[in-house]
Each structure stands twice: as structure tokens, then as C-alpha cells.
């Protein structure tokens, strides 16, 4: 059996291999777009196992290689904690991955199915749009502060608030900035509304959402974020594991006075609303906890 270590970059992929008897194939560098050359390198090494670090772009390579052999995903943070080196090159990285795979010491990362991955993509994109929209609102508030003005509405970015903004006269330059900011804000609002419609259509594909919606304060978007980031819920044995994965439970990694805190940001920022184990239904009596999400049929 050949064990292949892969160091994936935006434009190139570096691969090295070692078999059970210790025979080594020297590292090669191939352009990512040359998928035929990648497959040609792997062809004489079948059957093989391959490992690649989890990156933002690993998905295409995983799909390409999963039909040729077994491909595993390495957890980059855990891998760095295991291996600390002074010398780091692409060739050394792929050789290290191959050797760790050979002795079954790769810290694995979860590979979500395609439907969960697509849900992750759309919810993360909506989060980016919301963050961009928030920055625009900060710009509009800053504009008001520079001119010592306050909006007369509690929600200054609703339809009446936007009309009020447009009716204000600042300086010629600030009027131009205001118009550009409002145009961007309208764009982000329209895009978020369009995505929300798509999320409503996806709701039926993820029935576990219904259990989350019973929790006070959780809406459809938040529920879908939780479902997307947790993936297949069967991989967790308890609600405590969900909390640990999301970064809701305390964890300290301390060395020499420095504290290292690693959190699953996207999940944590949403699941923080689940910090209480009680919610109210229309009668104010229903007890709801993460156990209901983990075991919706119990």
C-alpha cells in the first residue's frame, strides 16, 4: 500500500509517497489546473491512501482523488501541535504527511457530505454579506457623527431612515459618500433577502432544523448555520461534545504564560444563544436542550 502526502496550494500541489516497506517516491510539484498530470502521478501507486491538509480549496482535490483511492483530510491545527519544526518547505510538508499516514498518526478533520458543504457555503456567504452591511452602517453613523447629527428614528436604516439620510445635506463630498454607502447597503439587503428565500427552500432538506427552531431565540438562518457547521449529528455522542466542538466549553492551552484559545468561530457565534437549557413555547412550559437537537426522535 502506498501512502501519499499532499501539500495543496492555490496554484500548485506537491505530492510525495512512501509504501509499507519504506520505499519513497520523491516529491513532485504539479499545477493544480493540470489534473491529468496529478492522476498520472497517482496511477502507478494504486492502491493508495492519500492525505491533504484541510484548506479552503481542498474540496476539488478530494472529489478528484476519492474516485481513485482513499483520501483523508488532516486537521491543520492539531497537526501543528503534533509537529513543531524549524525547517518548513512544501517538499518536507508532503513527506511528513506521507510518513504520518504510513504509521496512522494523522489527526483527522471532518469531511462533510456535499449537501452539508453547500449549506455551509450559502450560510457563510450570507454571514459575509451581513458583515459587509454592518460596515456600511458604521460608515453612515460615522458620517452623522462628523456633522453632529442624529437620526430621528430608533432604527435608522429602515425605509424611513434611509429616506431621511437621502434628504440630509452635508458637504458635496460627504453627499457623494452617503449616496455610495446607501447604494451598497441596499445591495447587501437585496442579496441577503434573496439568500433568505433560498434558505427557506432548503429547510425541508434538513429536518433537524425543526428541533432547533423550538429553542427560544433561534430563527431559520441561525438553525441552518448550526446544522451546516455541525454536519452529520451522529458523529457526536453527546451535547457536551457539541459544546466542545463549537467552543462553548472552557479550554485552556497554556505555555510560558501565553494562553491559546481555539474556537470554531462560525458555530460558536451562533450556538452561544443556546447557553441556557430552557426555552418557552406558546404555553411557556417546554424544556428544550441540545439533547433534543442530538436526538430529535427521542
Automatic annotation (TrEMBL):
GO terms for molecular function: DNA binding; transposase activity. Residues 210-258 form the Transposase IS116/IS110/IS902 C-terminal domain. GO terms for biological process: DNA transposition. PANTHER family: TRANSPOSASE FOR INSERTION SEQUENCE ELEMENT IS1111A, TRANSPOSASE-RELATED. Residues 4-146 form the Transposase IS110-like N-terminal domain. It comes from Gimesia panareensis. This is Transposase IS116/IS110/IS902 family protein.
Amino acid at each position: 500500500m502506498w501512502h501519499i502526502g499532499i501539500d495543496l496550494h492555490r496554484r500548485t500541489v506537491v505530492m510525495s509517497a512512501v509504501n509499507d516497506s519504506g520505499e519513497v517516491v520523491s516529491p513532485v510539484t504539479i499545477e493544480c489546473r493540470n489534473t491529468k498530470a496529478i492522476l498520472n502521478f497517482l496511477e502507478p501507486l494504486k492502491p493508495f491512501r492519500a492525505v491533504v491538509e484541510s484548506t479552503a480549496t481542498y474540496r476539488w482535490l478530494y472529489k478528484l482523488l476519492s474516485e481513485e483511492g482513499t483520501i483523508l483530510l488532516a486537521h491543520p491545527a492539531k497537526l501543528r501541535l503534533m509537529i513543531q519544526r524549524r525547517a518548513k518547505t512544501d517538499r518536507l510538508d508532503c513527506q511528513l504527511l506521507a510518513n504520518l499516514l504510513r504509521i496512522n498518526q494523522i489527526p483527522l478533520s471532518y469531511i462533510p457530505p456535499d449537501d452539508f458543504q453547500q449549506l455551509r457555503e450559502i450560510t457563510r456567504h450570507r454571514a459575509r454579506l451581513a458583515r459587509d452591511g454592518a460596515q456600511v452602517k458604521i460608515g453612515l453613523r460615522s458620517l452623522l457623527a462628523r456633522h453632529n447629527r442624529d437620526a430621528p428614528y430608533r432604527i435608522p436604516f429602515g425605509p424611513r431612515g434611509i429616506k431621511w439620510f437621502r434628504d440630509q445635506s452635508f458637504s458635496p463630498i460627504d453627499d457623494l459618500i452617503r449616496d455610495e454607502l446607501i447604494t451598497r447597503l441596499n445591495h447587501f439587503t437585496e442579496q441577503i433577502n434573496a439568500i433568505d428565500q433560498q434558505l427557506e427552500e432548503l429547510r425541508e432538506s434538513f429536518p433537524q432544523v425543526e428541533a432547533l427552531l423550538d429553542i427560544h431565540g433561534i430563527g431559520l438562518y441561525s438553525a441552518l448555520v448550526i446544522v451546516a457547521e455541525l454536519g452529520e449529528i451522529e458523529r457526536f455522542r453527546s451535547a457536551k461534545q457539541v459544546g466542545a466542538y463549537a467552543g462553548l466549553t472552557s479550554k485552556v492551552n497554556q505555555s510560558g504564560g501565553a494562553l491559546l484559545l481555539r474556537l470554531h468561530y462560525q458555530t460558536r457565534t451562533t450556538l452561544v444563544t443556546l447557553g441556557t437549557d430552557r426555552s418557552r413555547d406558546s404555553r411557556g412550559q417546554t424544556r428544550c436542550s441540545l439533547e433534543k437537537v442530538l436526538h430529535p426522535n427521542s
